[in-house]
Design goal:
heterodimer; B: about 130 residues; Helix Hairpins
Chain lengths: ~500, ~130
């Protein structure tokens, strides 16, 4: 039964109709639909994972048209891990939105469209189909960023839309170049046709550059990350948590698929410069992202720049063409999604107590919001890479792989970035626990108490909801749990990764 | 191939490059949000033109099968696949424009301007 695979896209896409359609009859239609769909999605993801674990990679021909003519959906163990990640994050975020909102029914339609989009990106085996899913993801994200009706969020969303669309269009142009070169759009078929055309022909190399530029914009690597900090900082907390966990993840996954499934490591041996440049861009992204994160005063912007750095690390692991580093990248892709979702939910909770989302607003919250603060600190150290958390497992593999592939610079940059990650998280943790609000900072603290949340969700309750506590605790536990189970995760990923080497 | 031959036989690719360039310039250079969206549309149309031109074959017939026979009678057919792809891409482009304009209306209602520089000033004064 391979039918579970297309249903991963079809179910949320179809369900996205109901919140709007039933919203007139029943106010809670949106949340109920989203909750049911998320659970069904997890079930389907479980079925797909089960099939991959027992039978290995399998594919599904959409509409009965056999590939390479028809569109193909492919599931291997990397896909399986990512669809389970998508379903789990969706369930967590839908749970989170129950109390803190946004509460419009249209919001839940957009959320489900986003779920359909990222699921599609993860399972498709066709380049043009990937473009369509990227754009479904993009459209849903633009709408979600502006979900709380604040004009600043709308402006951030327009900027994101302009940059994101240019990225997707460049990707489309790259697909066009490869199509003109080979006459096929199926990823597996392209992998066999491209060597016949010649990896070093200008058409193929330009196609590769266009695909990578487009997807780098979507992943938000430096210097094309400019849309991302505002989009993250101005959107409602629940939306930030969701898009930070999944949207860039889907784009980074697409980079992995295109480099390994379409171009394969033999492209890297013919045109090594292409991958080296990508590794350098990623390394610069790690450094600049981390440094910019250190100087931010807004907590959500800090976490946004942290994402620029972490995705730099992931792409660096992909670009060094080494099995250990690639496994590390996939592990970190999953780990980063879990940790960032938890961190943004925690920020949402802390900001509602503090009345602001700047770092100075966090002073003394360790006492006023102990559970969420502890969760935040745990997740922060997990992302820094303190063992046994998942952040350590991913980074360790990436550094190990980069060094054994001879990319010493990438290894050094990754280690240095860990220090910088520690630097920007320590600023927050120090304020949470080790600074008392009644001392020198009383005035600033009072001032910020009176400030309205800029761009944050104004609908949030003034205290932390129980669901927030549960979600932050859950993601902290899963960050550590995944870290303890990291070797099992690597064993699961191995069959899908080792075929490329 | 001489420049004149290039111009007469490959002009659609030259137009493609020109449209992409004009579009990108519009998005980057204009400070008016609506003009940026127009630039984005021109940019996308350029890419659509590239796909459509790639499906064109000299002296070819439309890819239609004769009724009853199940096969075509012509010797060369234009490739329909890029055209179908672009139908999808046009739909995506239209949805993007719609979302962009909806967001811009909200921005305009809040700030009373479409100009980025003016909006930045309004934001600073708040």
């Amino acid at each position: 039964m391979t039918d579970a695979l297309p249903l991963l896209v079809v179910v949320p896409l179809f369900a996205a109709l109901f919140p709007v359609a039933l919203g007139y009859l029943w106010n809670d239609a949106g949340w109920a639909t989203a909750a049911i769909t998320a659970v069904v999605h997890l079930g389907l993801a479980g079925v797909v994972a089960q099939q991959v674990l027992t039978g290995g990679q399998f594919s599904y021909a959409v509409g009965g048209f056999q590939p390479p003519i028809g569109i193909e959906l492919v599931a291997d163990s990397v896909t399986a891990v990512l669809v389970i990640l998508i379903s789990s994050i969706t369930i967590l975020i839908v749970g989170y939105t129950r109390r803190v909102g946004p509460h419009q029914n249209a919001f839940y339609s957009e959320l489900l469209l986003l779920t359909a989009g990222v699921s599609g990106v993860v399972i498709t085996g066709d380049l043009f189909n990937l473009y369509v899913f990227l754009e479904i993801t993009g459209l849903a994200t633009y709408a979600l960023v502006a979900a709380n009706r604040s004009p600043a969020a709308a402006l951030a969303s327009v900027k994101y839309l302009l940059v994101g669309t240019i990225g997707a269009s460049l990707y489309l142009l790259g697909v066009g170049y490869l199509y003109v070169a080979t006459g096929t759009l199926n990823m597996a078929d392209l992998a066999t046709q491209l060597p016949a055309v010649g990896y070093d022909t200008p058409l193929v190399v330009t196609g590769f550059i266009l695909l990578m530029t487009g997807l780098a914009i979507k992943t938000a690597l430096f210097p094309v990350h400019t849309w991302q900090p505002n989009a993250y900082a101005k959107s409602p907390h629940s939306v930030t948590a969701y898009i930070a966990a999944l949207v860039s993840t889907a784009a980074a996954y697409a980079i992995f698929r295109i480099i390994y499934t379409v171009f394969t490591p033999s492209f890297a041996s013919v045109v090594p410069l292409a991958l080296d440049v990508l590794a350098w861009v990623a390394a610069v992204s790690i450094i600049v992202g981390s440094v910019l994160a250190v100087v931010q005063s807004d907590l959500k912007r800090m976490l946004a720049y942290s994402s620029v750095a972490q995705f730099g690390l992931i792409i660096a692991g992909i670009a060094v063409m080494n099995q250990i580093a690639l496994t590390g990248s996939v592990v970190h892709l999953v780990g980063h999604a879990v940790m960032k979702a938890g961190l943004f939910v925690a920020v949402g909770g802390l900001a509602s107590v503090a009345g602001g989302q700047t770092i100075d607003d966090m002073i003394g919250l360790g006492r006023r919001a102990p559970i969420v603060s502890l969760g935040f600190a745990t997740l922060a150290f997990a992302l820094v890479g303190v063992p046994p958390a998942i952040g350590f497992a991913g980074k360790w593999q990436i550094v190990l792989g980069a060094v054994s592939a001879g990319h010493w610079a990438v290894g050094v940059v990754a280690v240095v970035s860990t220090m910088l990650t520690l630097a920007y998280f320590l600023r927050v943790v120090e304020r949470l626990y080790f600074r008392s609000p009644s001392s020198v900072d009383e005035q600033t603290s009072d001032m910020s108490m009176n400030m309205t949340t800029d761009g944050g969700d104004t609908l949030v309750a003034s205290s932390i909801t129980t669901t927030t506590r549960i979600i932050v605790t859950l993601s902290a536990i899963s960050a550590i749990g995944l870290g303890l189970a990291a070797s099992d995760l690597i064993t699961i990923l191995e069959p899908a990764v080792e075929v490329y080497f | 191939m001489t420049p004149i031959e290039l111009l007469t036989s490959r002009y659609s690719y030259i137009v493609f490059v020109a449209l992409v360039g004009i579009g990108l310039y519009g998005v980057i250079n204009s400070s008016n949000l609506v003009k940026k969206v127009i630039g984005l549309n021109i940019f996308q149309v350029g890419i659509f033109l590239f796909f459509i031109a790639s499906g064109y074959v000299n002296d070819a017939a439309p890819p239609l099968i004769e009724k009853g026979t199940g096969t075509g009678t012509e010797t060369a057919y234009a490739s329909p696949l890029p055209h179908v792809l672009i139908l999808t891409a046009i739909v995506v482009g239209v949805s993007l424009t719609a979302v962009a304009l909806a967001l811009i209306i909200r921005v305009y209602n809040a700030y009373g301007s479409l100009d980025e520089d003016v909006i930045r000033e309004v934001q600073l004064n708040d």
